[in-house]
């Protein structure tokens, strides 16, 4: 849903600014502190002299450093000792992994590590004929973490008055940010910077049908679905067709939209959509169409927020998700819009691995069955109205998809 909560937009480097703080600034009476004492000479000579002031936890001889637990009051005394050069807090650091919690939560990383030795890049969602169409506000294809991920562009805005299909990706630039965030959740590159998508080597089609303000007409969404189904050669049922259509958007029922969905489904395109953020009892459209997989959101603690529409088919992470944002930025966003692409990318992993192992792609119906049979059941046992079948498990789903 386009009304997703944009929490913060920040360069990811800001997160690294967690350095050692000045000791005095932290001072509070009678606390026990974990500190690092640096000595002027070999640290082993001073062990006994230091032990008088607190507990020694360890040392790094090469750096003449001792890690100590001391009372607040001892710090100043320690600092005055003639052989003590420097004292600082032993601050806590957290891992700043390129792979964020949401990608771990659906076990995507286990897919990569399990299958890459046998199937190479297919374990990361790559196959020359596998494409995920992101029907949204466009994609910042020039983003440092989306380099080479977008291979084709469709634009349909204002009831098709603005229309384009082709490889000039500039036409699919994202003036909103939503589409770029969704794209990153699917396919941000595993390149040592920024974040990583669930299928970090997958190829995307950017299908821009929502305006810079994040809204669009049913007719434009319908046209986008049809163009994605046909692919660059303009012919449905050929190798360049989109294999997955990812729709982080929603609205009222529309016969036109439903017919477009049925058209894509008829060519074995798997359709995935956000369940919606209205706190409603049922997903919005297109998620509610039977041909479409409806995805609701959960947070890091496996709880479904009240705004995530009930009765989805599945849930996936959708609260405080860090992903790509235009102009080489990264942003935290929340919404079923963020949950949906986790499933779209999982389908890309399944299909790429099917092809790599010599099996035909699964039909959309088979995809849904495999996903449903391999979920992590949450809430009440079996299908329930909060979590649907449950939390998507990319690893179990690929294992099951490859077993026959
Ligand atoms: Ca990356
Ligand atoms: Ca085609
Ligand atoms: Ca359940």
Quick structural gist:
This protein has about 400 residues and is of the alpha/beta class.
Topology pattern, helix = H, strand = E: EEHEEHEHHEEEHEHEHEEEEEHHH
End-to-end separation in angstroms reads 36 Å
Please count the helical segments. Answer: 10
Largest sheet: 8 strands, mixed
Total number of domains:
2
SS-derived structural category:
alpha/beta
Give the distinct bound molecules: calcium ion
- Strands, total number: 15
CATH topology of the largest domain: Rossmann fold
The general outline is: elongated
Unreliable stretches: 7-29
Q: Order of strands across the widest beta sheet?
A: 8-7-9-6-10-11-12-13
Estimate what percentage of residues fall within beta strands. 15-25%
Query: Per CATH, which architecture of the largest domain?
Result: 3-Layer(aba) Sandwich
Helicity, as a percent range = 25-40%
Would you tell me the overall average pLDDT? 92
CATH class of the largest domain: Alpha Beta
Tell me the CATH superfamily of the largest domain.
Peptidase S8/S53 domain
Characterise the protein shown here:
With about 400 residues, this protein is of the alpha/beta class. The chain has two domains: about 70 residues, Alpha-Beta Plaits (2-Layer Sandwich); about 300 residues, Rossmann fold (3-Layer(aba) Sandwich), CATH 3.40.50.200. The chain is built from ten helices and 15 strands. It has an eight-stranded mixed β-sheet, with helices on both faces. It has a four-stranded antiparallel β-sheet with strand order 3-4-2-5. A hairpin with a 3-residue loop joins strand 14 and strand 15. Helix 5 runs parallel beside helix 8, helix 6 packs parallel to helix 7 and helix 8 packs parallel to helix 10. The longest helix has 21 residues. About 5% of the residues have low confidence. Bound molecules: calcium ion (3 copies). The site of one calcium ion has 10 residues, from loops.
